[in-house]
Protein 1
Amino acid sequence: MNARQIVSGVYWMGALDWHRRLFDALIPLPDGTSYNAYLVRGQTKTALIDTADPTMQRELLEQLEHVPSLDYVIANHAEQDHSGLIPCVLDKYPQATLLASAKGKPMLMDHLGVAESRVRVVADGETLPLGGKTLSFIYTPWVHWPETMVTYLREDRILFSCDFFGSHLATSDLYVTDEGRVYEAAKRYYAEIMMPFRAVIRKNLDKLKPLAIERIAPSHGPLYDHPAFILDAYRDWIADTPKNEVVLPYISMHGSTEKMVNHLVGALVERGVRVTPFNLASTDIGKLAMALVDAATLVVGTPTVHVGTHPAVFYAAHLANALRPKLKFAAIVGSYGWSSKAVEQIAGLIPNLKVEVLGSILARGLPQPADLAALDTLAETIAGKHRELHLH
Ligand code: FEO
């Protein structure tokens, strides 16, 4: 695909990866992704902001055939999906200087083998005149690595945000056209990648407030020509107050846990609580992560394998712990055959979640009327806790 003009002298480059289905050998990509690089031509200097995934070398080099000289390569982020082609771009343009944050420089040297002599550290707030186009660099750490920064083009009011505000979405649209689709992709991206750094993201958003931003140009997914759409979404996602929602990851081996889960789902719905169950035998782990963005309560449903929890539940509990969502409450339900340490095991897996534990209900084999009654009581407790916090 050829470079695409955004405004005079500013171009999208990079590649669409329509068919990629897994990122970092971890994150599902139902809609593929893109690796956006940007070329900024001033009257005297030219800069390339980020590169692309190493698999896209041919695409980027073909686009650069129309760029006779390059003065700067700007690495907003050292992760390889954006930095991976920096070595070959530096080879193509021996006079170019690589610019990175103070923490970015050693990471680019470690991960890509870039020679120290090719990299110059830019300070937080530093500006770079290109002749009629002025770039400034703003450190925005932990979106989502410690070295991340964004680049702002003052004259055209474009924020090049790299992963920040990105979405894993391959689309031929340069800008957002279907807000619902992009909202879902961006929320999934936030949930899987950004959510653990919620508190730092708030500081970074505050730091960006003084900027007049007409366009946000992330390094994944379409650009935003109505920045308020994604800025408001981020403000909502990082807010401390959760929503009146329960997320319920579970797995069931012989149907007992599923029967309990179904009963609890019905009991919660009757009490006005939104709830989403996720059968871990088949669920898209990204959808589970998205549900954790807003949920006030986590209920884990597990059968007992030997005397412990099911391995799929280990994985889901570990994931929830790592993502550090704003959950307030938790509970465990499930079943066992003769003995179970599932509750203690799950509790030990979620130390990062500062939740009030509302109880555990384990049935021996099929749930009996007393177990179902206990689930009704749990639903009542959850609904009451949500009401106390005035959650919507
Ligand atoms: Fe898109 Fe953190 O790389």
Protein 2
Amino acid sequence: MAFASSVSPSMHGLLSNALSRERNATKKICPSTLSLSQHSPVSKMDLNCQWSLRKLLTSHTCASVTDGRETSVENFPLPEGDNWSVHKFGGTCVGSSQRIQNVAQIIINDDSERKLVVVSAMSKVTDMMYDLICKAQSRDDSYIAALDAVLEKHKLTAYDLLEGDDLATFLSRLHDDINNLKAMLRAIYIAGHATESFTDFVVGYGELWSAQMLASLVRKNGVDCNWMDTRDVIIVNPTGSNQVDPDYLESERRLDQWFLRHPSKTIVATGFIASTPQNIPTTLKRDGSDFSAAIMGSLLRARQVTIWTDVDGVYSADPRKVSEAVVLKTLSYQEAWEMSYFGANVLHPRTIIPVMQYDIPIIIRNIFNLSAPGTIICRPSVNEFDYRQGLGPFVRAFATIDNLALVNVEGTGMAGVPGTASAIFGAVKDVGANVIMISQASSEHSVCFAVPEKEVEAVAKALKSRFREALAAGRLSQVAVIPNCSILATVGQKMASTPGVSATLFNALAKANINVRAIAQGCSEYNITVVVKREDCVRALRAVHSRFYLSRTTVAMGIVGPGLIGGTLLDQLRDQASVLKEKFNIDLRVMGITGSRKMLLSDTGIDLSRWRELRKEKGEVADLDKFVQNVHGNHFIPNTVLVDCTSDSAIASHYYDWLRRGIHVITPNKKANSGPLDQYLRLRALQRQSYTHYFYEATVGAGLPIISTLQGLLETGDKILQIEGIFSGTLSYIFNTFIGARTFSEVVAEAKEKGFTEPDPRDDLSGTDVARKVIILARESGLQLELSDIHIDSLVPESLKDSASGEEFLQQLPLYDREMAKKRQDADDAGEVLRYVGVVDVVKQSGAVTLRRYKKDHPFAQLSGSDNIISFTTERYNQQPLIVRGPGAGAQVTAGGIFCDILRLASYLGAPS
Ligand code: ADP
Ligand code: ASP
Ligand code: MG
């Protein structure tokens, strides 16, 4: 797939337009001073900003002529420049009377010489206003009650904040406004339709009210303050694509006029609203108050624009989606712009351009946490990236846009035909759709682009109609729509010219099993954009964020079967979790524990110090689908592993599906690898095709490195000739102890008493368990055998196979003691011992479980207790086999083997080694 440009309008293009406008426009007043207020936040920030361009622009434009009006410094009292500080307070900042009080205090405490404060509507009010229109035009009478609610909200707030004449004036205006609105909404109701300008007029009232209340309150505190209806000042031209372009010249002229009438040092201005050149009220579109503040900042050549909101600054990712996101101290204009364009709604995308041309920094601050310094968005200084955070300066942040669809126009007839792209995007433009990203393969075989989901139907229809002939003639093969997509954008100015960034990005996505549908990288290299399935988006965001920012590997785990082994594993995890986190950056979180009857689920990770009690107290009825969904589906952590600690073939039958869904599987359960061959081969084929891991070291020899040794030999090109071993701790114990002192049945009974055997010792003596291990090793060595192909010499006498119980079996076993004693004696006479072994003969392509005799100096004869021993005879280890020996059973070592697999998984997923 080729990399192609993202369709974000070029910053440089916009900037040069703005600058040329500026050159034509000219300026009147030199800023009285460029010095910074000692107490303002900007004094901390100027370290990172360059002021030279700004100085140049402002001084260059002193005392000259604008738009035909003869002007001089003296005629214009508006003192532009660094003595102005602009603030913008978002809806949540003015969401209640208490919060408006708070805002007033911030304004009063700012000791800047001049202040202009842009204010949004109280939170939810703009939504309420849009809802009024919706209701009225669909002839729903409830608009009247909804309007009453708007009135009530503002009335109550005003009663809280104001008194006397101020209150009376505000309430009288509010009632007039509401009466006017009632009349307008009635007209809309009758017409069953609202024009755009009617709508813009209605929805802008929220800002008019909040600005008036705030201005009154500031005045009440003894500060001379005027409120500004920005429809009198900010003039914009609609662009036809739900956007508007400010007319800076005209706006500046109107600002001068406004200031002549209201020469205040503190101004509270409405956000969001503006007028067209014909003086028709309009808006800067949703969330446009940030843009209003930037426009005002640029008209005033302000020292800084502070955007107050409800978070500590711009985070490395949306903090609602990535709990580990960090606040960025600084961002370049380009980075901030890319972030906002790609969905970080902390800043409106159009906020940057107006201020960037004068190098005016934007500071994002949290009104609810004044101690947080916020994020400074400015031109990076020479030492721009000294403020490294996380993994380094290359990738700064991530953002996502949801509800997109991809459109793929494909066909061999497109190659080398000039005008195809123009025809495609012409058709898209005709339906007014907004193209967010484009990717074209260099073969010119297909053009793929993303549009908002709600626009895709119209786009597809337009394209099919535009290319009807080409489709009929086969020059185009299809116009395909891929719905339910999201964009994940990775932003960082320093990504430019840095090799390896995209490799790391795609690696992190691959490891989280996320399929990338399309890719674009602008040649500015400020962002890399990938399109993923909607449902994968948050997981993708978290995967890349943790890869670049935290360098921490976080794995969500589900433990199936918290019995002896599973329980021991959970205890080991509990004891080791903090060391893994602190020293190795591995964050293992158990999100679910399920037995056959009860399960315990968590969204953030179960407290392992109390998992047993919690399961009892909070456990719910076990449901495997719900369990898997909880562990994998909460999108909180990019990587999921299910650890099956049962010996249940029903659980093993789910592995294929889990792996297919990108869930890693780790298990000591032998059932999947020793089950039907076709299912085993299918599972392994899937494992090899994907980045999803399936580890099963503990299926043979518990914690002993048997599978990994075998895999190591095979992967490095050795040829396995034979694997032979004592794979059963129980049978190892029985034959190590059966040395003539006691009868065979006595030894078996003793093993049972010591807890070394299964409840029914026939499960061990039948050899089936050993046969399963043999088949696992045989298949790992490349042999395609079924379990039934393994020859088993069972130690359970034929006549005792049907004994009703283990106890009955043990009672009758002495009948066969003489036979076993003879075998032992014969061996002993020949200087040999009896051992019950599993054998994989790779050369003969067979496997067996059998009682064999070994010379007394053979390693198998030296065994003690319940140890396992496995010997690999290979082309390299031919004279002397490679031997692995050690305890091969028991909860601690088995759980340890599983734990090793979990850590191997973490390291495959990117944890440091
Ligand atoms: P306001 O009403 O103050 O304009 P917004 O809701 O428009 O506030 O924007 C602030 C919100 O943006 C935050 O509450 C946060 O949830 C969201 N947001 C999304 N992405 C980011 C990000 N990268 N950094 C900070 N906030 C973000
Ligand atoms: N009040 C407007 C809106 O909600 C503008 C803003 O708050 O930025 O869209
Ligand atoms: Mg906002």
